[in-house]
Design brief:
By secondary structure, this protein is α/β, with parallel strands linked by helices. It is 35% helix and 21% strand. It has 15 helices and 18 strands. Strand 6 and strand 7 form a beta hairpin. Helix 4 packs across helix 5, helix 12 packs parallel to helix 13 and helix 14 crosses helix 15. The chain is globular and about 80 Å long. The two termini are 36 Å apart. The N terminus and C terminus are likely disordered.
Amino acid sequence: MDGVRTGVRVFLSYAQESGGHVAAVRRLWELLRQLGVDARVGLPGPTDGRDWSLWTQHEIRSADVVLVVASPGYASRAAAEASFIRELLYRNLPAGKAKFRPLVLPGRSVTELPDWFGPTIAQHTRLAGLDRAAMAGLAADLTGAPPEPGHHEVALRVSVRGDEVHSRVELAGTVISERSVPLPWGFDDFWDTLTLPAEQATAKQVSAGRRLGRCLFDEDSLTTVQGLAGTGVLDLVIACDDEAIDWPFELIRLPDDRVLATIPGVRMTRRPYGLRAPVISPTPGPLKILVVVPGDVPVRSPDQWAGLVRTQVRLLAATTVTELAQALAIDAYHVLHLADAAADGFGLADLSGLVRVQRAAGRTVPLVVLGGATAGVPAALGLLRSGADRVVTLQAPASPAFTVGLHTAFYRHLTAHNAPVAAALGAARAQLSAASSAAPVPEHGLPTLVAASGDRPLCDPMAPAGPLLGGMALAGAPRAD
């Protein structure tokens, strides 16, 4: 995730006194997020060992606004939380009245607020309903502007334990689902189904996407994600163990049968368990891409590199890792793109060794793009464990038209807005999915991003430019002589 913060930060303080009241507060939370408010809440259910008292105090201090939700049991059931709010409110009453705002849900009364809330009760907000129309005014009041797209961080942890798969889903730090279900069949080596006749292969993808959604999310959490998808940026980071790392997560379908990964604004990233790599900071632009092709391929500028802005591309015909290492020693590239035959031609052991050397020398290339048909998640995982930071790869062979179209769209999104890698890949996937509905077999699930740590933009727009020093610049800014 790139650390984007969208909208005012709001914490919901309420009493967990009945299932209906908790459900109403959860709906309030979801609607605020859909309307661009960075709302936070604690929900009953599984915990992760955190000290909830300290967590709540941190959220209250960090919030721009705390909405105190009226209910009969607020003063007693949320005693510690209420006491902390009371202390802050009266410590600086003018500032406290601006930060701590009473909220009355439909069917509730302002008289259900604690007596000590007297100074702010006159400023309470009463909601006529729990729907987007009724919430729009509250969201505008909180943000001081009409609703804008939000930014939603969804963390999904997946591990296989014997005959079960365990999953945990968090939204903005709040657990919304945790479950263990029988291990589903058919996800290992799933992409072998592409060899089936087109109709059968397509049906397998649809079935797998539905089963993945039902397996990894409970009904409420999948509905929550469905409500957020398309309302702004939705960052889904999937942390997996080795047993699940190559599952076809990009096929996950929502209850309305949309493919989550193809919705505009959705970014998906896989992270393997156990890797502890420092986040690589953006480096001076323009974006510098080293494209490696086999030595027997004529050096030329393919159409997919045309039209890139603020970008330099060097096309390198290489047959050995030594030649590749020499090119990387001259310039600090942002992207190492191994074209189809090159990705298949270099041995994974040789590439992993090169990555280790680059990492030790402090010259890690932030992004490796594997264009080879035989690369896949296992190859990406091997590079990450050798020190690579982020790897984009195809999980199975794709048609030439899809591969070229994917890389063309990916780099244009990457360069046009200096976007994080997951954002550019998600935008390219959505673009191709919308344009390729007539394809014999959908290929939108094939591209994936596997990362060792966070995903930030590759270029630092504030740093002095550092153009290519050697080789042949094919696009964007001129090469430095």
